[in-house]
């Protein structure tokens, strides 16, 4: 049986949408108090399991985890491009259209990186299909501010998922969150703010989330959040969440599928991530037979599903017909500590990646929702 989301559970799609509702006076699924300024801090890679395991290194975050907190689901795939678009639009990948780290563009037949594709001229401006909540806020006469790294300021992905927000760059974690804290303490404006921290996920990819480097990044985030919380007034609320959790994949779990393997027979294009493969069938190939072949080989360690089965299980939320072709004909989602590679991918930097995510396990899909200020 395939895993799938619970219709009754809160998800990442609710977080910024409810933050806007808390400012505009609309009902909220997350039971947020009314505020003048609502902020969401997304810490890339801060899974609920990861935070619990290192709670001693994150007193501010861990205290909130023990008191007024929720564990919410991110949806699938548990990858940054899809999850950030879900957060900032309030809809799932099947609606906003970013369905993986890489995805097939049906019109060109190219597999394109969803974080860099706009800058490379390989994705059209309307590839991200949904209006952002920043645009909605502006239409309501509210402010919308995003705090992120300088290097992301002018990227095409930033333009696609932060459309409508005024971008405030900061080089370090501390600079970004100090600027966020100053904005939340300023009573001259009403609206929503968003801040993004990538450093935790970067440390996990290179060293693993159980490494000293990851713990050091967590300690920096926690100290910076404490500074923001200290300055929150009665009409400002802060939610801290994440796009996905992380698990470490040992070298023995990085499975190389040889170029000559019959598993590639009938596969015209490979997209997604190493823990959630999108297999696009060649013309004339039978996706059901392709799925059966993969299930026979890797079914003990992965969920294997034809596209429609995955859609029916709710993996991507409601799927617009225009988005369906971006999803693989067959999905292979790791459920153990493994990741799948072509020979070429394993020989590159990706083959050395320790911390990984993308699939449906609880370690990847469950993230904290921590409440501060008016929400606490």
Descriptive account of the structure:
The model has no long low-confidence stretch (mean pLDDT 96). This protein has 2 domains: 12-94 and 123-245 and 360-373, 3-Layer(aba) Sandwich (Alkaline Phosphatase, subunit A); 251-356, Gyrase A, domain 2 (2-Layer Sandwich), CATH 3.30.1360.180. Helix 1 (12-24) packs parallel to helix 4 (80-89) and helix 9 packs antiparallel against helix 10. It has helices at residues 12-24, 48-53, 59-66, 80-89, 93-96, 133-139, 156-161, 173-185, 199-207, 212-230, 287-298, 307-312, 321-324, 343-347, 362-365; strands at residues 37-43, 69-73, 102-105, 110-113, 143-148, 166-169, 191-197, 236-241, 247-248, 254-256, 267-273, 276-281, 302-306, 330-334, 339-341, 355-356, 366-373. 34% of the residues lie in helices and 22% in strands. The two termini are 38 Å apart. Strand 3 and strand 4 (110-113) form a beta hairpin. The strands form 5 sheets. It has a 7-stranded mixed beta sheet, with helices on both faces. A 4-stranded antiparallel beta sheet has the order 11-12-14-13. With 376 residues, the protein is α/β, with parallel strands linked by helices. It contains 15 helices and 17 strands.
Note the main sheet.
7 strands, mixed
Cα Rg: 20 Å
Please give the share of residues in helix. 25-40%
Structural class: alpha/beta
Order of neighbouring strands in the sheet with most strands: 2-17-8-1-7-5-6
Number of helices: 15
- Uncertain segments of ≥5 residues (pLDDT<50)? none
């Amino acid at each position: 049986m395939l895993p799938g989301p619970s219709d009754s559970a809160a998800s990442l799609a609710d977080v910024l949408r409810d933050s806007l509702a808390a400012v505009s006076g609309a009902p909220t699924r997350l039971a947020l108090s009314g505020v003048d300024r609502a902020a969401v801090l997304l810490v890339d890679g801060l899974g609920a399991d990861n935070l619990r395991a290192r709670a001693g290194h994150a007193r501010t975050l861990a205290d909130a985890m023990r008191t007024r907190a929720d564990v919410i689901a991110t949806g699938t795939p548990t990858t940054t491009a899809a999850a950030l678009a879900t957060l900032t639009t309030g809809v799932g990948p099947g609606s906003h259209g970013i369905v993986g780290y890489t995805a097939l563009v049906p019109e060109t037949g190219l597999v394109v990186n969803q974080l860099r594709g706009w800058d490379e001229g390989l994705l059209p401006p309307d590839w991200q299909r949904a209006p952002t909540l920043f645009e909605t806020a502006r239409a309501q006469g509210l402010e919308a501010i995003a705090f992120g790294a300088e290097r992301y300021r002018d990227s095409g992905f930033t333009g696609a998922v932060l459309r409508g927000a005024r971008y405030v760059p900061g080089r370090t974690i501390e600079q970004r969150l100090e600027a966020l804290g100053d904005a939340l303490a300023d009573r001259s404006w009403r609206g929503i703010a968003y801040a993004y921290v990538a450093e935790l996920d970067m440390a996990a990819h290179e060293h693993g989330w159980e490494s000293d480097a990851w713990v050091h990044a967590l300690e920096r985030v926690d100290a910076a959040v404490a500074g923001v919380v200290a300055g929150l007034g009665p009409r400002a609320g802060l939610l801290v969440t994440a796009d996905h959790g992380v698990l470490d994949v040992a070298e023995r779990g990085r499975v190389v599928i040889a170029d000559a393997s019959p598993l590639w027979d009938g596969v015209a294009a490979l997209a997604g991530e190493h823990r959630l493969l999108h297999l696009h069938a060649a013309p004339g190939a039978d996706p059901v037979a392709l799925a059966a072949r993969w299930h026979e080989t890797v079914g003990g360690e992965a969920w294997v599903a034809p596209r429609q089965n995955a859609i029916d299980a709710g993996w991507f939320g409601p799927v617009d017909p225009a988005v369906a072709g971006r999803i693989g004909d067959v999905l292979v989602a790791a459920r153990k500590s493994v990741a799948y590679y072509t020979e070429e991918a394993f020989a590159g930097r990706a083959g050395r990646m320790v911390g990984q995510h993308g699939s449906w396990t609880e370690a990847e899909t469950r993230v904290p929702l921590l409440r501060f200020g008016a929400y606490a």
